[in-house]
Write the structure tokens for this entry.
Amino acid sequence: MASLGRLFRLALGAWALVLLVALAAPAQAQQPSSVNPTASSVKEQQLLQELNRIQGRVSIPDARSGVLEQPQGRDWRYFRDVTLRWIGGIVILGMLAMLIVFYLARGMVKIEGGRSGRTVVRFNGFERTIHWMTATCFIILAISGLNITFGRPLLLPLIGLEAFSDWSQWAKYAHNYLSFPFTIGVIVIFLMWIGGNIPNKVDVDWIKRGGGLVGDDHPPAYRFNAGQKFMYWVVVLGGGAVAATGYLLMFPFYASGIEGMQIASVIHSVVAVLFVAAMIAHIYIGTIGMEGAFEAMGSGTVDVNWAKEHHSLWLEQQKAREAAADARSAAASPAE
Amino acid sequence: MARLKFLCDADRCIECNACVTACKNEHEVPWGINRRRVVTINDGKPGERSISMACMHCTDAPCAAVCPVNCFYTTADAVVLHSKDLCIGCGYCFYACPFGAPQYPKVGNFGSRGKMDKCTFCAGGPEADGSKAEYEKYGANRLAEGKLPLCAEMCSTKSLLAGDGEIIAQIYKERVTKRGYGSGAWGWKTAYREGIDT
């Protein structure tokens, strides 16, 4: 009897267990359908809206490739393909057009007093070497740089894909390697001419009187007039800016990520096209724009009458210095 | 013609990096270059996701638009390829690419860039299909052999899909319907200007 009772209790217990499991089962079965793993997960659109880039971790050694998505490249693309071409086209063609109109209207600025036949040293050999080294580098850098922006629409259709690629490859090498002597040139120019290029009161008067370009006035100037000082600072500041941003692009990821390089590329190209426009004006005034100007950087000497008209205060300083030197040498070598 | 695309089902990716390894091996990609990588977002936190990413072969590809020497071309299957003979290694495609796909071997001094390398959707380059020259420059041309990209073929969880955009979108939609969730096709809005409605 006792064993029958035990068997009954066991059966009851088993039944209860089965009932419990059966009751619990639907609750378990329902659970997965209510779980949505993506509800708590990171979402692409949300990440993009927050930061405009998606970054994570990668297990390969190239940690930079942890940036998954960065759609701001679109802005850079628009700048490169549209904005820059407009800016570059307007400033460079605009400058050329202005100079042509100016030349037709004004012609070459002549030495009013005619050539005196006597000359005075304006730039020594070292200054001229630095100038021409920087200038040569600049012209090659400018052409190879403009090729990157304007070559594909303008030159490529004329010479074909292969020839254009070969030329661009060499232009890129030239652009990269000549950046070094150019940068050295800019630094030396900064140091060797800083003395004469600090703006002062004479410049205000010079600008007010149109610098002698407008009208036939000859406002006084020291070694560098306000226009030349402007050009000096264009070279120093513009050259500094293109060099700094250029090296950021040339040495990828040394100092900046991809956004930094996009910004560097924008600054580099905008400053560069303005620089080119400014240098076109500089070349104009140094050659066909003004009589007697080229020889300052050519032979290093200028006509005294040219100096009198364009750099009167500098000529006086030079004369005073010469007189002082003569007096010294006279004192050093007593009368015969 | 098909419009070939990649789709990474982030809810399936387990960051095993088999796709990365398969790609490197199949194309004998040089040291330091990864055509494909797996990025893990919110690593170790709840809700982390891993996404396998390479060139997405964008519609109106930014790389092709900014290339100064016009070295990119798009195949009839909408795969974005480039010519290493024309490439000058300027790095512009890398500035424009939303996915960080272009890679440059460090060949010159100071880490200057060599000719660009990127995912070809296993479709080689401009050289004759399956030629030695093509293999050396761009890796295997599986598409010409009637095969799909090896990264997707090797995917251990079938997270990474490669093929006709409409077909892989359909597969993804069916998965989402069946399991009841999906975090969307990562990168599609950026690359193709259209997501997948699920």
In short: Residues 56 and 66 of chain A are 5 Å apart (CA to CA). The domain at 120-326 of chain A is CATH 1.20.950.20 (Fumarate Reductase Cytochrome B subunit). The beta strands of chain A are 54-55, 67-69, 119-121, 301-303. The first helix of chain A runs from residue 2 to 34.
